[in-house]
Amino acid sequence: MEIEDLSQELSQFLDDGGILLGIPIAGLSLLLFLAGYRLLPIVTMIVGIAVGYVLSPQIIPIATDLGIALDPLQITAIICFGCGIILSSLVTLSARLLTSAFIFITFSTGIETLNNYGFDVERSELWSGIAALCALFFTMGINKILPAIFAAIFAAYGFIVAGLLFTGNQVSTFEPVNVKTFILMLPIVILSVLMQNHDKVKQEEKELAKYEPDAKTKEAQQHFLKL
Predict the structure, then answer these.
(1) Mind listing the pLDDT tens digit for each residue in 20-78?
(2) Contacts of 76 (CB under 8 A, 6+ apart)
(3) How far is it, in rounded angstroms, from Cα 27 to Cα 70?
(4) What span, in angstroms and rounded, lies between the C-alpha atoms of 84 and 86?
(5) Using CA atoms, how far apart are residues 147 and 163, in angstroms rounded to an integer?
(6) Which end of the chain is more exposed for a tag (fewer CB within 10 A), N or C?
């Protein structure tokens, strides 16, 4: 099955589902919008399972022709689980590859720019060490923020698709790569990243609170004099 056929099949399935499919899509998008940095693998697996369910009627006859002695229900379960694992793994791998590519392009451009101004970064041990340290901290920072950005983008797409289903418009008319789509998604993505950062701070505060003594312990400690 080609990508265009898969896209049409999924679009038709969403259009037929209408509001009934729009509700879970909006719910999953809301989860990604609020705390997607820690829920992205789970949500993408759920989406992959749904995609596998849509594709199973086309794959089951192929599996039967290959002589696989399994019930259609078992084949459907295998397809759904496989699609869920694949989509979740692809999103994680894409984030890592994007991080590596972004860092490579950024530092290559930076080193070339410094060379133009007389700083030979590649041959200087000092500048090479500084560049290596910068790359290390930059990688750590990007790795922390990329899951939130990915989740925000998926949430924005999900909200748009859900909006089309709620209003009765055809999902097939939606163009993911478009200037209007980018303008519509940008505020959603920015707000989602801010909300996820707020959730991350709250989660860190909860983790720290686990190691703090409770009110009774603090009160008991106040009765002891320091030696």
Answers:
(1) 888 888 898 898 898 888 887 888 888 888 888 888 887 888 777 777 777 778 888 88
(2) 52, 53, 56, 60
(3) 34
(4) 6
(5) 24
(6) C
- Take residue 220 and report the two structure tokens written for it: 């008991």
- Residue holding tokens 């038709």? 12
Give the HSE-up count for residue 109: Cα atoms under 13 Å, Cβ half-sphere.
Answer: 6
Q: Which amino acid is at 129?
A: G
Which helix (H) or strand (E) segment is 56 a member of?
helix 19-65
Residues 6+ apart with CB under 8 A from 181: 160, 174, 175
Tokens for 123?
């041959």
Residue-wise burial string across 86-125, b where 16 or more C-beta atoms lie within 10 A, e elsewhere: ebbeebeeebeeebeeebeeebeeebeebeeeeeebeeee
